[in-house]
Design brief:
Length: 273
């Protein structure tokens, strides 16, 4: 919303902070609408930047927390909202912010952001730590969004898909072309919706074991699972154990990891624990 007088006059975009600002007002509105946040909601926005989403959101939710790492932008928004009790500005790296701690009801929190693409995966895993928010709407690089929602058996399926899909429902909402940003980035984007399972379907131990197996398996994604189970330093099962587990589960462990759905990987993670 560059026409809004509260938008900062912010000089050059900082590449190191992933600053590509969304300048299309229709898309700004669509993303905020996709959040579905109302007057009772608490919302965290990651990286308000020049206010593309912020200026559509402020005033319409109970509590809005803006997390911005850029010194000038954080100072700008702190100044703009200095007299507002419903808007809080946190000048920090989102990865260092304990989001549940800034929220009055972490399980009901909604998170939105057109995030810096270079730290998409760390941000996702940070957001998906327990207690998880109710709903997350993020703009991400198109290829990364496709990896998050990927089905087994596809080239895009891997540790990211299993990690997200085992704790949440994820879907792509719409595409955003690169020309909707200034400066124009070298990639296209998608808006992604993530709704964490509530209550969580897996217990903490299942989640940890699944993560260990998935990381190892997809680090060696070209290898048969039986080899990874035996030889990967994080796993190291004996040949006999691998054969026993395969027989017990009725799983052919000569398969490669990308052919296994998240529930098969979970069964395997439990069996080798
Ligand atoms: N929301 C704005 C928009 O849609 O135009 C800005 C989006 S821009 C892609 C990403 C924003 O995240 C920038 O404002 C940048 O300064 C901020 N940012 C970058 N790294 C960050 C971090 N680690 N923690 C919080 N904000 C960060």
């Amino acid at each position: 919303m560059s026409s809004d007088p509260r938008a900062p006059d912010h000089g050059r975009a900082r590449r190191s902070l992933g600053q590509n600002f969304l300048v299309d007002p229709n898309l700004q509105r669509r993303i905020v609408d996709a959040m579905g946040a109302g007057p009772g909601d608490e919302v965290v926005e990651i990286g308000p930047g020049r206010g593309a989403l912020t200026l559509h959101l402020e005033g319409s939710v109970r509590h809005l927390v803006l997390v911005e790492l850029d010194d000038d932008l954080a100072a700008h928004w702190a100044q703009v909202f200095r007299d507002r009790t419903d808007v809080e500005v946190i000048h920090d790296d989102v990865l260092r912010v304990d989001l549940p701690a800034v929220s009055t009801d972490p399980g009901a929190l909604k998170v939105v952001g057109n995030i810096p693409y270079n730290i998409t995966t760390p941000i996702l895993f940070h957001l998906l730590r327990r207690p998880r928010p109710a709903r997350i709407v993020l703009m991400v690089q198109k290829e990364v969004g496709e990896r998050i929602v990927a089905d087994p058996g596809t080239g895009a399926y891997g540790a990211l898909a299993v990690g997200v899909q085992s704790v949440a429902d994820a879907r792509l909402l719409f595409k955003v072309g690169r020309k909707a940003f200034r400066p124009v980035p070298g990639v296209d984007s998608v808006v992604l919706e993530i709704v964490p399972h509530a209550p969580p379907r897996l217990d903490v131990r299942d989640e940890a074991d699944l993560r260990t197996l998935t990381r190892a398996a997809f680090q060696w994604r070209r290898k048969q699972l039986q080899k990874t189970l035996r030889d990967h330093p994080d796993l190291g099962l004996s040949r006999e154990r691998v054969e026993g587990v395969g027989a017990d589960l009725g799983l052919d462990l000569r398969r490669r990891p990308e052919t296994l759905a998240p529930h098969d990987l979970l069964a395997l993670a439990r069996a080798i624990r």
